[in-house]
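Following up on my earlier thread - several people asked me to post the actual chain instead of describing it. Fair enough. Here it is, all 195 residues.
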Amino acid sequence: MKTSSSKWLCRAVALFLISLAGVIASPAAAGAQGASGPFAQPPGPNGFGTPGQLVFDGTAAFSLVKETGGNTTFLLRPAVDYFIIPNVTVGAVIGFSTESGRFATTTISLGVRAGVNFNLTDKFSLWPTAGFSFFHTDTSDGGPSSSHWAFNLFAPFLFHVAPHFFLGAGPFLDVGLSGGDHNLFGIQSLIGGWF
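Reply from S.P.:
Thanks for posting it. Predicted structure:
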């Protein structure tokens, strides 16, 4: 059963990568021909998506689990992205997380990603990104260390609260590519700005 799920997941990831490559290639081709189309839209009325913009965003989380010892978890994952052409970004992510307890863990992650911004209105846009991340985890009290690679998908809807400032939330999927089964999915929020 696990093998079947893994094959299905690999096929879904491959299909997404092929689709994303087509979406990213479309604006360049349309720009070269001077044509416009659904993927060659100009930046939105709020200016988000203009070539040359730097975008800074990040996620943060804190949790307290009421167990013996009261374990806590803290996560911080800032990112920077750059619009290389209208509505198309490339970027990098760095992450740090720690979990307290008997076998406390500390995880450092580094990743790269690409994304496409779709302006829906003057206040809302959809900014799906895809990329790869490397994670390294150390465990206290003589516990093991581990490392793994993951393929990351994130599709947040952004609410442009004010010029150069946005809030967002959307589904994410992290597919483990090495070092055991590290698949994660859920809803993630972010806060960011651009200039």
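The first strand starts at residue 54 and ends at 65. That should answer part of your original question.
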